[in-house]
Amino acid sequence: MFYEFLFPLVRYFTPFNVFQYITFRAAYAAITALLICFLFGPSMIELLRRREAGESIRADGPQSHQSKSGTPTMGGLLMVPAIAVSGILWMDISNHYTWVALFSVMAFGTIGFIDDYLKLYHSNSDGMRAGVKFAGQTVVALVITVWLYARGGTTATQLFFPFFKDPLIDLSWLYIPFGVFLLVGCTNAVNLTDGLDGLATGLVIMVGLTFAALAYLAGRVDFAQYLQIVFVPGGGELAIYCLAVVGACVGFLWYNAHPAEIMMGDTGSLALGGAIGAVAMMIKKEVLLVVVGGVFVLEVLSVIIQVVSYKTRGKRVFLMAPLHHHFELMGWPETKVVMRLWIIGGLFAILSLSTLKLR
After folding, report:
1. pTM, whole model, 2 decimals?
2. pLDDT of the chain along its 359 residues, tens only?
3. Is residue 161 packed enough to be buried (19+ CB in 10 Å), middle (13-18) or exposed (0-12)?
């Protein structure tokens, strides 16, 4: 919004020239989202306490988690507005990627909110029925994918693999079910990972920073040509969005770090998963998302392996799934599990960026 209203006034006030730079707007998008979380975090926590929006802890979970029962949840109600407000203020609102990005975080966040609300206020610890929840995610993912399919250029349905400069496959109309699978999978991967104080929040920060860099490079024709990556016209605006996500997560982490004063709940985890999944699709890094979000992938795989092993062999591979609970039951303190998975997440982010020159 600032770009549309203030940059045209540069002829009258030359300092407004800074609004043309994506790097400037991205930095202030992060700061804006961060400040929103800082300013409204305490009041949001107090509001949720008064509304008795406390987390219910699974009886079969690690015993160390039982003390967290009653901690305010639905922290996504803090993050999602911070991302949306910051994005609207600092992104180019005439760019269709802006609205796809904002729709993704708000739509998936809404599904998460309904799920959290049912858990808290309708004596239904399971929240939405699995089929209904999956259907809602699928519909949102379908809207996003079809929009990108319809508005995309020649590269819209192509898949680009790390270490290769040219697309290896064109999915054509099959890109639609692929995109739906990717988005639904990404939202649930973040949701599964959100089991320890600060874990999912910190990992999303790393993914957001990585995608911010990739989006900026993909949106610059000179850098894209030099690095031999796909050029995404207008994709640079997504760097602003990614840093808004990072800013909101950093602000939320202030209250979500161990011992957490607030948890993000499905409202936050589904929103963040949808946010990073949609960005991956828009900058044509769908395959690289598996590497950037490597820890999320490991968490999902641990659940799949556990279920398949138990159903086929009657034995469990892990002490508990997802993976972070396995490490807890091995005796690792919660903070150590979080820090070590953050380190692994950082290594995945570095590996992802290294692929820019290895092609």
Report:
1. 0.94
2. 888 888 888 888 888 899 999 999 999 999 999 999 999 999 999 999 988 776 666 555 565 565 667 788 899 999 999 999 999 999 999 999 999 999 999 999 999 999 999 888 775 566 788 899 999 999 999 999 999 999 877 788 999 998 888 888 999 999 999 999 999 999 999 999 998 999 999 999 999 999 999 999 999 999 999 999 999 999 999 999 999 999 999 999 999 999 999 999 999 999 999 999 999 999 999 999 999 999 999 999 999 999 999 999 999 999 999 999 999 999 999 999 999 999 999 999 999 999 988 87
3. middle
Structure tokens at 161: 């693999």
Residues 175-200, buried b or exposed e (16+ Cβ, 10 A)?
A: bbebbbebbbbbbbbbbbbbbbbbbb
* Measured distance CA(155)–CA(22) in Å, rounded: 23
d(CA 325, CA 323): 5
Amino acid making up residue 158 = Q
